[in-house]
Design brief:
By secondary structure, this protein is of the alpha+beta class. Helix content is 25%, strand content 33%. It has three domains: 79 residues, Rossmann fold; 58 residues, Dna Ligase, domain 1 (2-Layer Sandwich), CATH 3.30.1490; 94 residues, 2-Layer Sandwich (D-amino Acid Aminotransferase, Chain A, domain 1). It binds adenosine-5'-diphosphate and magnesium ion.
């Protein structure tokens, strides 16, 4: 029986892989070993030698160790969804943004400094958004609306050992996530309680994906050789649309069941 290893991810995933030996482990407590060219994932529950890996890290604080694990997966040649090389490319927000820019996709402009001793040089006209490091799920992001808040935030940011970006706050009408899995594309509007649509999310509304944006997300998916990818798009009242980011481990909340099925089939197909 083939072994599917799920790294993190929701509890429901094993239900999609009936007939397989499914193991779920947490990145926080697992160690990887390559011995005699075979890759093992070891934690207190034992060792797992996977035939395919399903990487579902959510809003986990990024660590250098995660990148090392992805390098080992890449080295081992064991298939992974997304592939380890795709995940490595998207791991760093800056390389993710570079990728979007190189493809000529409408990515938001930003200021950036490699260290927090340069924060004063990142100031913009209020309101603007500060983003620190490679965090997901709305973490490490703050809206700054006035001088006093900026002063306060700079002191807190100063203790971080990471790069920081600032970008204009977009007074958006819609926050739309385009999700591509295999050759299928879905689109969903999201609304949060405050300015972040993906934190304290109150509303999900599936919408008909627009042809132009189906093309864009497919172009990206092909370029980064992804099995699954999502782009987060902000649309203003006057119709301007900007991409905030792409996410190669997108959350699927609010998307139809078909998206989960499509994704789980992709994982199984890697075994053929
Ligand atoms: N410049 C911005 N202007 C307005 N809203 C923003 C801006 N940047 C982020 N947001 C809001 O915050 C959410 C999370 O930001 P995002 O850049 O997608 O990071 P992540 O989802 O990886 O935490 C977005 O979906 C959007 O609703
Ligand atoms: Mg996002």
């Amino acid at each position: 029986m083939k072994t599917i290893l799920i790294i993190n991810g929701e509890k429901y995933w094993p239900d999609y892989f009936a007939g397989y030996h499914v193991v779920q482990k947490r990145i926080q407590t697992v160690e990887c070993v390559i011995k005699d060219s075979a890759l093992y994932f070891i934690d207190v529950d034992g060792a797992c030698k996977p035939d395919v890996i399903f990487w579902r890290l959510g809003a986990v604080n990024p660590e250098a160790r995660h990148r090392s694990i992805l390098e080992l997966i890449d080295y081992s040649g064991i298939p992974c969804v997304n592939s380890a090389s795709t995940l490595l490319m998207g791991y760093d927000r800056l390389s993710m943004l570079n990728r979007l820019k190189k493809l000529g996709l409408p990515v938001i402009d930003f200021n950036v400094a490699t260290g927090t001793n340069q924060l004063r040089n990142l100031e913009m006209n209020f309101p603007f958004v500060v983003k620190v490091g490679n965090h997901h799920g709305g973490y490490g992001k703050s809206l700054v609306t006035n001088e006093e808040q900026w002063e306060e935030l700079k002191d807190l940011l100063f203790i971080h050992n990471d790069y920081v970006t600032t970008e204009q706050f977009i007074d958006y009408q819609y926050d739309i996530r385009y999700l591509a899995v295999n050759d299928k594309v879905w689109a969903m509007k999201r609304k949060g309680k405050y300015w972040k649509a993906n934190s304290l999310t109150r509303e999900y509304q599936l919408i008909k994906p627009e042809e132009e944006w189906i093309e864009k997300v497919k172009q990206l998916k092909e370029d980064i050789r992804a099995d699954i990818v999502a782009i987060d798009v902000l649309q203003t009242k006057d119709g301007e649309r900007l991409i905030l980011e792409y996410n190669d481990i997108p959350g699927l909340s609010g998307f139809p069941e078909a998206a989960k099925i499509e994704l789980s089939e992709m994982v199984k197909n890697k075994l053929k």
